[in-house]
Write a structure and sequence with these properties.
By secondary structure, this protein is α+β, with helices and mostly antiparallel strands. Helix content is 30%, strand content 35%.
Length: 257
Amino acid sequence: MVEFKDSDVIKSRGIIGRFIWVIYEGTADVTEVKSDGSRRVRATIKKGEIIGEMSIMTGEPGSADIVAKKDCSLIKIPREIFSSIIVKNSSALAKVASIITKRLIRKDLDEQAGVAQKLAISQSEMDDPYNLLFTSSDISIKILVINCGSSSIKYSLFDTSKRQYQLEGLIEKINKPQSFLTIKCRGKEIKKTLSSHGIAGALEEMTKSLVDPALGLLMDLNEISAVGHRVVHGGEKLYASVVITDEIKNTIKEYSA
């Protein structure tokens, strides 16, 4: 009889078995070490069950670590004694063969699940190889993109935890007596006629739609982490993307004066 404390390694991966272990009291976990150093439990072996039979019967090294779960007691049987019992007892041989078969099936299923998980990750990477959809992001970030033209404003709200845009809006004819707002959100399209008040009024309507309780997208504009703004007519100075600073704001005012 051999005693093991909680988390003691009973049998290490990669070692050819010389003994059969029978759990007399307690339980043990079949574990593997993950890439981050933590252990994943593949199965739990309970009282009366055996450990090490696959290595004994096949001569192959063990494929997992067997770790004591709390304090446990095991009966340690040398390989030679176990082999002599198996040779003389067909019932014992059939029992061991059944155990090995079940564990091989379980191991195969575990490996298939691991392959499926890797394929899913690989597929995600293929779907978004440059991370344009933020598929690698663990944090949900809301981004507002605005395309402001001379007579219309188009805007889209994105959430990095979701692949599709959350809201897409278009305000047209902002310099006419009446302007028109079209919103696409969650498969629905909403149209409104507005009393136009130029670009300032259009931007106000845009912000209203973003925090509209009926749409349920934002409680507050402060939930937006970043805003991307495209100025269509930038003149000679603003011919490429720039970060909006006070100097840039003054330049925009000069062009729009």
